[in-house]
Amino acid sequence: MADFRVKRVGHAHAKIKNVPIAVTPEGFWCCPSQVAQRGDLSKRKERHPSLRTDSMKRSSSHQPAGKLTPVKPRSVVSDEQRSVDLETIDDQRVEKRVVSVGYGEAETRDCEVFLSGKQGFTVKLSVHADVLAGKSDFFGDKIGRSLTNPCRIEIEDCEDVEVYVEAVGLMYCKDIKQKLIKQSISRVLQLLKVSEMIGFHAATNSCLAFLEAVPWIGEEEEKVVTSLQGLQVNAAGVTPLLKRVYPQIRIAPNDILADIFQLVVKGDEEKGRREMKSLILKLLKENKFSNHGAVDICNVNLYSSCRSCLDALLLLFTQAAEAGFTDTHMNSKESISKQIALQADNLLWLFEILIDRRTADEYMFMWACQDDLVMLHPKVSIASRHPVSSITSRLFVAIGRGEVLPPKDTRCLLLEKWLQPLIDDYTWLLHACRSFDGKLVEEGVGRTILTLPLENQQSVLLSWLGNFLKIGSNCPNLQQAFEVWWKRAFVRPYLEEQQLLLQNST
Fold it and tell me: What does the pLDDT look like over 345-367, one tens digit per residue?
């Protein structure tokens, strides 16, 4: 058990005060600030009214300071530490607070280390020269140059005196790594910094071993990486830690992204696919690639995945369009229908990523050129094929919102090839797909049509009109777009002609 006691200072004008000492549960010493001491004392008085009574009694009896009962610590600093002495000097001429800490056997201490902290107090360490010289290059050099007996070492403007005291205390520990268990990462980083500064290699290695074993993420990760990169020595111990965030071998983003996309598009467990698609989409939105080459690599992988999904979709449509497919076993039909829906979902997900990256023009052209898929579409049952029309719907919505700006030829081709299949599947989409928004799709299709030259608008809308007059509400309602086209085709020319006649007459 460590022996804590208060020393009297032999000065005519000095007053000795009882200074509390705080000891962490892990056995490290720390000196609380004056504000913290007052706050802690007031809290203890509130919890224990007897403390207030005792204090009042001592105040009224004017008991000499030397007879005060020292405050006992809550735990032992270390097995090897024998005593911690506290001195507080409150002089009218010199305002100074000194805390004295002793390590090891008091009779054999032959070195004094004075640590002047920025917190406004000085710590005097009574230690053994051979211990410090054997554990620290810095102290070994200072002790070797010292001409006094006992030797005296002064360190001015310490950023954190407590950490220095802990570092010296660790020189008396047999197992430093054990002392670091349950310490916070921030505290160990402080000890690591001081240990490196004073050349305390055993503590430096123990701190690095601690950091290598404990998990650190988020803000802690940034603190650790910054601290490790600031170390000047011990590269052999730092390198394994930095491998946690920096690869030993240069990563090829192209290969990794390709693997990730392929794993997701080939996965068939619904919940896992949904969660990972959402996560990857979020990560790609939050972490934009900083250089143009990385952007190109990502886009190359995205379009490679798109082509892979389109090839798989075409193969499934070919199987579903075969003459004897309707007579096949129910399980086989359900499997193919499920795979068609899966590939359509993959293509929708990839399109969302490309929209966010503003590189979806090529996707629009790829979809508009799927002649074989369009040709097979009416040969496949509507129950199996309708997910494909969901892709067409999303593309029209994207054009209507201005999320993608495909050229005129692509827009014409898209309407020419895919509007009729969408009309054929519209009823099923309205009733079978919960996420399908008919109003939004109608608005997107209408706005896409109105981006074309007037002659193309006329061709598409008259074709739509023939469908609408046959199937009514089972067809997308494009009356709003039809009205805009009507005004452009008939009203605007008449108004402009009348205005021209008016100007000529005047």
Answer: 999 999 999 998 899 999 999 99
Calpha distance 421→400 (Å, rounded): 19
* Six-digit token string for 75: 């735990």
159, part of any domain? yes
Q: Do 212 and 241 touch, CB atoms closer than 8 A?
A: yes
For residue 371, how many C-alpha atoms fall within 13 Å in the half-sphere facing its CB?
0
153 touches 112 (CB < 8 A): yes
Return the residue matching tokens 């007052």. 38
Residue 335 lies inside a defined structural domain of this protein: yes
Q: How many CB atoms lie within 10 A of CB 279?
A: 11
160/258 same-domain check: no
Looking up tokens 């009962």 gives: 69
pTM of the complete model beyond 0.85: no
Pick the last residue of a domain from 119, 139, 174. 174
The residue ranges of the chain whose pLDDT is under 70 are: 1-96, 119, 232-237, 247-254, 287-296, 326-331, 496-497, 501
Asked whether residue 241 is assigned to any structural domain, the reply reads: no
Q: How many structural domains compose the chain?
A: 2
Task: Please name the residue ranges forming H helices in 214-291.
Answer: 219-229, 235-242, 253-266, 270-286
Task: Say yes or no: 501 and 400 in one domain.
Answer: yes
Is residue 246, in this structure, part of any structural domain at all?
Answer: no
Which residues share a beta bridge with 115?
A: 123, 155
Q: Which domain holds residue 341?
A: 253-505
Specify the long-range contacts of residues 265-273, CB closer than 8 Å, at least 24 apart.
265/305, 265/308, 265/309, 265/343, 265/346, 265/349, 265/350, 268/342, 273/345
